[in-house]
Design a protein that fits this description.
186 residues
């Protein structure tokens, strides 16, 4: 492993040939161990939950009533969406600076452990949840908010757990140390 510090981002780059780690070289189709093997791309999971929430709202509308905060809905929604966008943007910037791809269907080249990644191991997903919740509040959609629970379960076990296992295989002790220092969410 090599630790490389650039632009206030610490990056751990695996020097061990990928075949020795049980991984196929980047860009080659292999056994599937070269990527995390998540159940679906996370943005698609969030989009599917939003669409299901919209459809459910049309088919079986549920009242979204919270007394005395009528004018506050857009403010709360806007703040959640802006914070979510800022978190996701900072995380994406960190990953790109480290030279590692953002999409889960590509091999990870570097373990980024500083910046926003020094605060939470999943800043992009955390940002997506804030955006999703903000949209649910802005639309006053109880269905979208209800679907947050199954979405969270799908992200946690179908995406994050698989990514963590992959990163532990790929970066070994460096990832285990990072996991011990930084919380999964907040």
């Amino acid at each position: 492993m090599v630790v490389n510090s650039q632009d206030d981002t610490i990056v751990v780059i695996s020097e061990t040939p990928e075949r020795e780690q049980g991984l196929e070289p980047a860009g080659r189709q292999g056994t599937g161990t070269e990527i995390a093997g998540v159940i679906a791309r996370p943005p698609l999971l969030f989009l599917a939950a939003l669409l299901l929430g919209f459809v459910s709202d049309r088919l079986l509308p549920l009242p979204f009533v919270v007394p005395r905060i009528g004018v506050v809905y857009p403010i709360i929604a806007g703040v959640l969406i802006l914070i979510g966008l800022a978190l996701a943007a900072a995380a994406i910037r960190n990953l790109l600076r480290a030279g590692t791809p953002v999409p889960t269907n590509q091999p990870t080249r570097a373990l980024v452990t500083t910046g926003i990644h020094g605060w939470t191991r999943n800043p992009i997903y955390l940002g997506m949840f804030l955006i999703y919740g903000g949209i649910g509040i802005a639309l006053r959609s109880l269905w979208i908010l209800i679907l947050t629970l199954p979405l969270a379960i799908a992200i946690r076990y179908g995406v994050v757990a698989r990514e963590e296992a992959y990163l532990e295989r790929r970066f070994r002790d460096a990832y285990r140390d990072y996991k011990a220092r930084v919380r999964r969410w907040v």
